[in-house]
Predict the 3D structure of the following.
Amino acid sequence: MRPYKVLLKIKDLRLYMGEIIQKIRDGERCIITYRGKPVALMLPFKSEQVNEIVPRSYEESFREPGS
């Protein structure tokens, strides 16, 4: 497993999305930060994992537990 080499601010993610996606496709792993704190991890999918993904709406994904 490759280490997490890249810490990105959300602003950098907005400005350089294309370049960042290419690095991830090449195997890079990135941690996204907001106000200096990690909030998300971006990493590449293995081709065999794609069939395991179940798409959900934003509302479904982030609703409060028990609601």
Q: What stands out?
A: Residues 1-45 form a domain with the YefM-like fold fold (CATH 3.40.1620.10). The two ends are 37 Å apart (CA to CA). The chain has three helices and three strands.
